[in-house]
Amino acid sequence: MAGRLDGEVVLITGAAQGIGRATAVVAAREGAKVGLLDVDEAGGADALAEVTAGGAQACFVTADITSESQVATAVGAVADELGDATVLVNNAGRNSYADPVAMTVAEWDDVFAVDLKGAWMMARAVLPAMKSRGRGSIVNIASIHARLTTQGMFPYAACKSGLVGLTRSLALDLGPHGVRVNAVSPGWTRTRLVQEVLDRHEPSYTQQVLDAHPMGRIGTPPEIAEVICFLASDAASFVTGAEWSADGGLGARYAG
User: Which NCBIfam families match (predicted)?
Assistant: First the structure.
């Protein structure tokens, strides 16, 4: 049976672990050729081995998405190996735990370079081919923090809110060219970044997090990957400019 992403070339940033790696595995299962990008060379090689274990065609490129030259080189390398990207998943991101007064301008720039600027530079690099073809899909991985945040994670919410705004703007500009742009906003998901947050608190905090979820648990990377690959596929052909929550109902809960 044909997969949802048969014939697609899916390019994923932050693909060495977590949601990015899970998305690469699901995309390959759904018939795509998969390009994996990450700064973590060892993790990327391991992820590539998992993706190709089932016979999928894939490649890994070490790249820092905050570097304009590395973005161009990486996108070109994937195109040479697999063909021009027809799907881009902007998944790479980083946490931030800054004080809004003590934070330096350089620290601010470092956070936004990964969580927002890098997504734009990746989109800019793949869009000429998508526009020329008259079709394409971009999925930006935002966060529940784009709408509901917590103290002690400045300026993460600003970055993710900006990414949702970028999604809407690109969707409007690119819709006439047949390119769809959407965002997925995961809630608590068992990734390294989430584990960082949990580790910053007492062990009882983890149970508080679980209790806050209507489903009584947090998500897994493969669950988020399924949503991403659906939005990337033609099964979501009339969805663009949307922000899809994948938070186990956490965002629906009244906090009082």
Answer: PRK07231.1
